């Protein structure tokens, strides 16, 4: 691919040079031919035309040529002189001629006078005829000159063919050298781009160095595309892993309640006529409870998977944490299940506003409070406290502490794992995902969570927002 691009570029350059060379040669020859035929646009053509048509100003007087008044003015305007000769080459009349100009010419001298600058380096002599007399017109002007070219047509065309062939060969060589150098410079980045595209196709997302020049924006966009594709590939892998994990968890966690439902339905089917109304009520209650548990389990599994993989969009809004948790405490105490429990609220700050998802944060904090109430004796005291903590910046600290059983040291590290229930807890209420979900919610708010516990003294959970 690399040499293919370079070869195409070289062929294009050589073709362009050859075409341009041929066109220029044709134009040059046409221009030279047209000039030779018409003598256009030159001072020499104008002076020669003036000399050849000067006979219109020549008259005869006593069989001798004279120049009329208009002709004399023309001579002065053109800084020229005129010399008339008879058929023997003798001067018969002259006007404005230089002092040292010879007055008699042999045929050879006449030819020499016309072809070359015999008078001086600034004067060009032209010849003409009027009334059976010949004349020389000398025009003194440095800008006017005459070149005499003697050539053989056969040799000229032969040499022209050689010259044209040599010209084309030299142009082609120059085009190849320049085309190779520029082609290599221009196609090298293209080769890197092609390799980069192949790497993207093979899912190898590697950043390329950005060269200066016309390809700079292309390389920059390629790098941005590589970063995006790499990000998308990682997200896809993460989603695949999340889906597989979710399916594995669901299939594992559903086995127990499904087995229970299946067992009781089989029991009811096989002994339908023998079951008492009390037994029937008990079995259907178990089936209903397990169904609700499965629904809660699915919801909690879905929530924890989305939280851990950052796939749950949080609805952030400005919330006063002090007022928010105070309302939660009141709501808890108004619940008949916990209305007579000892829950204390203390705020050492008047207001602490944060951007949070109210629904999720409420669930996380309630999970911590419920754990303190459900897994301890009924006389347990739960204290909720809010403080301002100054570290690198101002933070809001939420503390949920109880004086209950505490957590054994061997169980502390597993508190936030899925399905954890401490060895000193008697309640089997819930799906076992509450603490894991609460932890993930706090982390999703960029918060920090810490748990300390002493057995038979109590547990303290600290949330830092």
Sum up the overall morphology in one term: rod-shaped
Reading side by side through the largest sheet, how are the strands ordered? 8-10-11-13-12
Distance between the termini: 58 Å
Give the number of helices.
Answer: 12
Question: Measured on Cα atoms, how large is the radius of gyration?
Answer: 55 Å
Average predicted confidence as pLDDT:
78
Oligomer category: single chain
Largest sheet: 5 strands, mixed
Q: Count of DSSP E strands?
A: 13
Low-confidence stretches: 40-45, 419-428
Helicity range of the residues? 40-55%
SSE ordering: HHEEHEEHEEHHHHEHEEHEEHHEE
Provide the β-strand percentage band.
15-25%
Protein architecture, described:
The chain is an alpha+beta fold and 465 residues long. Helix content is 53%, strand content 18%. It contains 12 helices and 13 strands. The chain has helices at 2-38, 43-52, 69-77, 107-115, 153-201, 216-253, 255-270, 277-308, 321-333, 358-374, 409-412, 434-444; strands at residues 58-61, 64-67, 80-85, 91-95, 123-130, 133-140, 317-320, 342-347, 353-356, 381-390, 394-402, 448-454, 458-464. The strands form 4 sheets. It has a 5-stranded mixed sheet with strand order 8-10-11-13-12, with helices on one face. A hairpin with a 3-residue loop joins strand 10 (381-390) and strand 11 (394-402). Helix 7 (255-270) runs antiparallel to helix 8. 17% of the residues are buried. The model is unreliable at 40-45 and 419-428 (pLDDT under 50).
Task: Provide a brief overview of the structure.
The chain has helices spanning 2-38, 43-52, 69-77, 107-115, 153-201, 216-253, 255-270, 277-308, 321-333, 358-374, 409-412, 434-444; strands at 58-61, 64-67, 80-85, 91-95, 123-130, 133-140, 317-320, 342-347, 353-356, 381-390, 394-402, 448-454, 458-464. The two termini are 58 Å apart.
């Amino acid at each position: 691919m690399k040499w293919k691009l370079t070869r195409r570029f070289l062929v294009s350059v050589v073709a362009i040079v050859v075409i341009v060379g041929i066109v220029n040669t044709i134009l040059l020859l046409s221009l030279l031919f047209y000039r030779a035929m018409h003598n256009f646009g030159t001072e020499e053509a104008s002076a020669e035309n003036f000399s050849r048509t000067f006979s219109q100003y020549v008259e005869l007087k006593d069989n001798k040529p004279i120049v009329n008044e208009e002709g004399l003015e023309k001579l002065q305007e053109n800084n020229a002189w005129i010399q008339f000769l008879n058929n023997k080459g003798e001067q018969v009349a002259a006007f404005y001629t230089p002092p040292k100009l010879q007055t008699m010419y042999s045929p050879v001298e006449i030819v020499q006078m016309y072809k070359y600058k015999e008078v001086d380096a600034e004067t060009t002599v032209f010849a003409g005829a009027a009334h059976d007399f010949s004349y020389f017109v000398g025009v003194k002007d440095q800008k006017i000159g005459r070149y005499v070219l003697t050539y053989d047509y056969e040799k000229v065309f032969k040499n022209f063919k050689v010259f044209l062939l040599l010209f084309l060969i030299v142009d082609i060589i120059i085009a190849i050298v320049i085309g190779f150098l520029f082609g290599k410079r221009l196609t090298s980045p293209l080769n890197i781009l092609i390799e980069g595209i192949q790497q993207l196709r093979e899912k190898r997302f590697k950043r390329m160095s950005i060269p200066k020049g016309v390809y700079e924006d292309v390389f920059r966009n390629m790098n941005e595309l590589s970063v995006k594709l790499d990000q998308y590939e990682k997200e896809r892998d993460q989603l695949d892993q999340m889906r597989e994990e979710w399916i594995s968890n669901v299939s594992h966690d559903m086995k127990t309640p499904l087995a229970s439902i299946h067992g009781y339905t089989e029991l009811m089917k096989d002994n339908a006529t023998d079951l008492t109304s009390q037994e029937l009520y008990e079995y259907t209650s178990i089936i209903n409870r397990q169904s609700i548990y499965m629904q809660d389990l699915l919801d909690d599994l879905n929530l924890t998977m989305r939280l851990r993989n950052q796939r749950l969009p949080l609805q952030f809004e400005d919330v006063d944490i002090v007022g928010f948790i105070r309302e939660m405490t009141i709501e808890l105490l108004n619940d008949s299940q916990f209305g007579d429990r000892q829950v204390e609220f203390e705020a050492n700050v008047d207001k602490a506003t944060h951007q949070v998802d109210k629904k999720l944060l409420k669930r996380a904090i309630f999970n911590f409070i419920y754990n303190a109430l459900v897994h301890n004796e009924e006389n347990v005291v739960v204290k909720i406290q809010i403080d301002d903590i100054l570290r690198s910046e101002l933070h809001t600290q939420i503390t949920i502490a109880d004086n209950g059983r505490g957590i054994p040291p061997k169980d502390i590290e597993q508190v936030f794992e899925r399905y954890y229930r401490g060895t000193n807890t008697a309640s089997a209420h819930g799906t076992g995902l509450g603490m894991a979900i609460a932890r993930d919610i706090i982390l999703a708010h960029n918060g920090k969570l810490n748990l300390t516990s002493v057995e038979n003294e109590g547990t303290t959970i600290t949330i830092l927002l």
